[in-house]
Design goal:
Oligomer: single chain
Shape: rod-shaped
Strand content: 15-25%
Helix content: 55-70%
Structural class: alpha+beta
CATH topology of the largest domain: Helix Hairpins
CATH class of the largest domain: Mainly Alpha
CATH architecture of the largest domain: Orthogonal Bundle
CATH superfamily of the largest domain: Helix Hairpins
Number of domains: 2
């Protein structure tokens, strides 16, 4: 999320910088056009000033002949002077207008240059900010990669812990059960019979057989065991109030565990002989 936010901010910064760059290029183009127009105005102004100077020279050339002449001014000379004076007046007015226009262009050009300078400074500032954002994105990317590695390591550790918890729960809830006939269980070493032949007492063997001979059940989920016999006797220690024997319509017994905690309180093994 943080990486996405950095990239989004960086994108907006680049877009803003690009907009400023476009504005700079437009101002530069406008400045170039204005500079070209200024050059044209200067050329026209120079031509008009040269023409005015030429008119002045022609007037100055006519004046001595007029002043030294004792005869009246001829119509041709008078007309020539009047024409030159009119042209001179018009061109002087044009020169004034051109100079005003040139001044306006200079003022506008100064404004454009000022705006151009501000935009270039702003662009430089934004480029600096983008560079800083790029560094932040690079650092954020590094942090994200590091966090992803830490997360992967934590997930692996969690999986290992879950496996261990599962194994512990399985071992904690595992109970060993042996159900069968007296001779069968005695032969397997689950029980032993002691006493006189006619009065032998069946008890759980003090030397328990290996775990492989037992049937393993889960005490947290097992609530009944089918004994498949009409008679059965429990030889391990379990409170009688924690269980009951239930018979179906055929008389076949099923052990019902009513209180698992109490049933398995004294023994984690269950040995039942059936007849």
């Amino acid at each position: 999320m943080k990486k996405f936010a950095y990239i989004l901010i960086l994108s907006f910064g680049i877009m803003a910088c690009n907009d400023d760059q476009v504005a700079v290029e437009e101002l530069q183009a406008e400045n170039a056009v204005m500079a070209e127009e200024v050059d044209i105005l200067r050329s026209a102004l120079s031509e008009k000033k040269n023409y005015v100077a030429q008119v002045h020279r022609e007037l100055n050339a006519l004046l001595p002949s007029v002043l030294n002449s004792e005869e009246e001014i001829t119509q041709e000379v008078s007309t020539k002077i009047a024409q030159l004076a009119t042209i001179l007046e018009r061109y002087e007015t044009d020169i004034d207008n051109l100079e005003l226009k040139l001044w306006d262009y200079k003022t506008e050009n100064q404004s454009i240059r000022m705006n151009l300078g501000q935009l270039m400074a702003q662009t430089e500032q934004q480029e600096s900010e983008i560079s800083s954002l790029l560094n932040d994105v690079e650092q954020a990317t590094f942090d994200i990669v590091f966090l992803e590695q830490e997360l992967a390591s934590a997930e692996s550790e969690i999986c290992n812990l879950e496996d261990r918890v599962s194994m512990v729960n399985e071992a904690y809830n595992r109970r060993l059960v042996a159900i069968g006939g007296v001779e069968e269980l005695e032969a397997a070493g689950f029980i032993e019979r002691k006493g006189l032949p006619l009065f032998k007492k069946t008890m759980v063997s003090t030397e328990q057989p290996t775990t492989a001979r037992w049937e393993s059940i889960d005490a947290s989920t097992t609530r009944s065991l089918a004994l498949l016999s009409k008679k059965a006797e429990i030889h391990t220690e379990h409170p009688k109030s924690s269980y009951e024997m239930s018979a179906d319509e055929n008389g076949s017994l099923t052990l019902l565990i009513k209180d698992p905690a109490a049933f398995w309180l004294y023994s984690r093994c269950l040995v039942i002989t059936t007849k």
